[in-house]
Amino acid sequence: MRLLTCAILAIATVLVAGPARAQTYDPSYPVCLQTYGIDGGYIDCSFTSLAQCAASASGRSAQCLTNPYFAQGARKLRRQRGVY
Fold this sequence. Notes:
The chain is of the alpha+beta class and about 80 residues long. Helices cover about 30% and strands about 20% of the residues.
């Protein structure tokens, strides 16, 4: 009986758990803030401009980066074929 209860609890836990975001960089925003600290750092991609990010990074050990996974940025990298 105890085994059945544990199995039902384990299955319910797996089914209830939501999907987790595995990507550090959010593709919705073009600018990310990378912070540094003794216990580690983190990357926060929730800024729409470098000026907005710089205001948030002011006075902290942090830097602003352009998001390499920004969805709109991928369109700008395409090159047109040249005429031969």
